[in-house]
Amino acid sequence: MKKITIIAFTSVLLFIMALSSGNIGMDAEASTIRLLVDGNDITSLSSPLIVNDRTLIPIRFISEEIGAEVIWDGINRTVKVVIGDRNVLLRIDSYLVEYNNGAVYQLSDVAPLIINDRTYVPLRLISNALGIGIEWDEASRTVIVDSTKTSVMESFHDVKITSLTNNQIIDGKITITLSIGDQYKGIAKEVKLLLLDKDSATGFVVSGEKQLTRSLVYIPSIEENGAKIIALALYDENGKFVAGDTREVRIDVKPQMLINDIKDYGIYYDSVTFSPDVNFVPTYIDYELTKLDNNRVTNIKERDPFGSYTWTPSKESEGNYNLRMIAYDQAGKAYEGKTYTFTILVERYLAIRGVTKDMVINRPVTLLGSRNFDVTETQYIIKDLNTGAETVLTTIPYGGYTWFPGEGYSGDKALMVRVKDIYGTTRDSSYISVKIDGSPKVQLKGVGPNQVLTGDTKLSINTNAEFERVNYILTNNSTGAKRIIAKEVNVQDEITYKPVSTDGQNVSIVAEALYKGQKIYSDSVSFRVYLGELYGPKAIIEKDRFLEFASGMAKKSFEKTGMSAALQTAQAILETGWGQSLPVDKYSGKFSNNLFGIKGSSTNGSVTSNTWEVYNGTTYRVDAAFRAYNNVQESWDDHKGILLNLDRYKPFRDVMYHSSLGAWAVRRAGYATDPQYPLKLMRIINLYDLKELDRIKI
Q1: pLDDT by residue (tens digit) across 58-86?
Q2: Rounded distance, CA 435 to CA 412, Å?
Q3: Which candidate, 247, 266, 271, places its Cα nearest to that of 347?
């Protein structure tokens, strides 16, 4: 008799494909293979199948022939075989096999199949499950089952989890070591670690690498506590299961929170960096700083549990501190870490900002006193470098000062800031030398370069001298025609420009002001006038249908890329307002199908929508091109392509299987400037139970 050998997984795939195409029929195979159970020929009931040297046999008829009970659960699609004190639970289309009510788990190389309403399994699975002898006789093409013989359970794969034992307790972050046979090196392209619920045999990816590796790091969550199955799974380049191993474990997280780079009773200067080191996955962390001199508490809230934070206190805040990190789980429960005691000393700092050395100042500048201590008075001072004379430009309690220097300040000067601290001590910054051109100037305010005016706008001027009056002159840039839209206006007055169709679309405005009989002109500002119909953002689908709409695309993407479907869905919800605000072309109404507000051009060109710029201190809207797609699936794929391919998102890709880790990592990579972005995503995920989108089986 020939010993049973491990048959390649690819043969089973070919078998399934052949069945679906009709090229291999069950009856055709059955006519050439016999099935003997304890000497009885039961081939007529349901014969074995061989496809590419892989033998599949019907479990019900064999089990019943040797006196075993077969229990079919149509709701959960499971088959349970019981014989004496042994039993096995099989799940259709699942590689996970459960022996003796969960005493042992194993990954088969073929998931049980239903063919013509009969459940077929590989030979070795029957042998392992029932502990009986099963052999294949090549000469007579016969499967021989002998219940009087015993067999030893054998592994289906040359893959092992080497650092875990069955029923081991995992209480925090752990490195799991692996042994992977050489035969998988050319086949397996990805390694995943799955945490499965025992009842459903489904769960979540908790670690992984896009290459074969000897170890994986698993960071548990409080929510994962309980009896679980850790499954190591190898996949080929098409995402098909190749091989794996399992261990039964108990997750019982004992939260530990350390802060790296902080030493007890250490002394730090000017700033200190907190680098959290946690042994589980919290939703966020807080830092609580208690100043020992006066018990004043400073709370730094809702920070990244896996990213560093630098604290830069003021001079008044220097002293001795107790520092504690507090982590919060998904339910909002707090876990307190170790208390650190340290000292921070702060050197007083004062400098003037808004100008640079030897800068030519010929327009308004905003001067700012940059400091790290509290003040009651701030003065901005100019010094004549030729005479040494100082002049106070302004005296204010604190803050910045916008200054438009006039003729009296022209020449080589120096600027500084002088403050009075809370103790009454006067302190000066260093001087910064500048060159000032204070010749009479006019600045136009109220419209900016390339702005598109669609209605009335307020215009005014800013000057650095005593001007008498001002004219506002509009030019049609296409024809050269000019008209005065406001004549001999008081310099301090604001006027309203009401665009009309005869002005043209490509126009410019200049302010003409009179100074001592001389006409002084502002910069000419070119912009567009559009008085036609405008289109605003539109919905892609009804709001109450968007969750199903987005999660469907997210699930497909997750199956293809491994990127958390929960995270993808939450991003789509947050960034489109539940699908109610997608860019359209403001002039034509062309719909973009752009779910993520990506600028540029794509498969369907672009649409013109609004973005913001600043000119002479005024924020205004300008046109910008946003990518347009033929359908939303293209938009979805384009967005995922950015996250999957740009170098900056490599740290995100390392944890993209996990919705919480991924939410913080994508923000850390620069995807969003909003510090609340990860928390907003996680709130959506928790509120709508989106994590279930990431649930898989093996």
Answers
A1: 888 888 888 888 899 989 999 998 988 88
A2: 5
A3: 271
Q: Do 66 and 98 share a domain, yes or no?
A: yes
Q: What is the pLDDT of residue 12?
A: 31
Query: Residue 534: inside a domain, yes or no?
Result: no
Of 117-121, 219-223, 474-478, 600-604, the one with minimum mean pLDDT is 117-121
Measured between alpha carbons, how far is 593 from 28 in angstroms, rounded to an integer?
Answer: 51
Encoded tokens for 243 = 């091989």
Backbone φ and ψ for 221, nearest 5 degrees, come out as: -110, 155
Residue 347, H or E segment: none
Q: pLDDT tens-digit profile of 572-585?
A: 999 999 999 999 99
Pairwise CA distance, residues 49 & 75, whole Å: 27
Model pTM score = 0.87
| H/E stretch holding 518 | strand 518-521
* Beta strand residue intervals within 261-385, DSSP E: 266-269, 272-278, 284-291, 296-303, 309-311, 319-328, 334-345, 350-353, 359-361, 365-371, 375-384
CB 613 within 8 A of CB 582: no
| Residue 426 exposed, middle or buried by CB count within 10 Å (0-12, 13-18, 19+) | exposed
74 and 23, same domain (yes or no): yes
Category of 213 on φ-ψ map: left (φ > 0), alpha (ψ -120 to 50) or beta: beta
Number of alpha carbons in the 13 Å side-chain half-sphere of residue 608? 10
472 found inside a domain: yes
What is the DSSP code string of 459-510? EEEEESS----EEEEEEETTT--EEEEEEEE-TT--EEE---GGG-SEEEEE
Using CA atoms, how far apart are residues 273 and 344, in angstroms rounded to an integer? 11
What is the pLDDT at residue 51?
52
Determine contact, residues 211/189, Cβ cutoff 8 Å: yes
Same domain, 356 and 339: no
Q: Which residue segment(s) compose the domain that 494 sits in?
A: 442-529
Radius of gyration of the chain, Cα coordinates, nearest whole angstrom: 37
Average pLDDT, the chain: 91
Contacts for 174 with CB less than 8 Å, ≥ 6 apart? 217, 218
Angle between helix axes 632-645 and 546-561 (nearest 10 degrees) is 40
Distance, C-alpha 270 to centroid of its chain = 32
The structure tokens listed for 71 are 């229990």
CA distance 609 to 166: 59
DSSP 24-85: S-HHHHHTT-EEEETTEE-TTT---EEETTEEEEEHHHHHHHTT-EEEEETTTTEEEEEETT
Largest CA distance in the chain: 122
Answer yes or no: do 621 and 650 share one domain: yes
Measure the CA–CA gap between 178 and 175, rounded to whole angstroms.
10
Q: Are residues 550 and 667 in the same domain?
A: yes
What are the tens digits of pLDDT across the range 167-181?
999 999 999 999 999
- Centroid of chain to Cα 294: 41
Residues 307-350: pLDDT tens digits?
Answer: 999 999 999 999 999 999 999 999 999 999 999 999 999 999 99
Q: Are 515 and 522 in contact (CB under 8 A)?
A: no
Q: Which CATH number fits the domain that encloses residue 178? A: 2.60.40.10
What is the domain count for the chain? 6
Single out the residue in 473, 499, 529 at which a domain terminates: 529
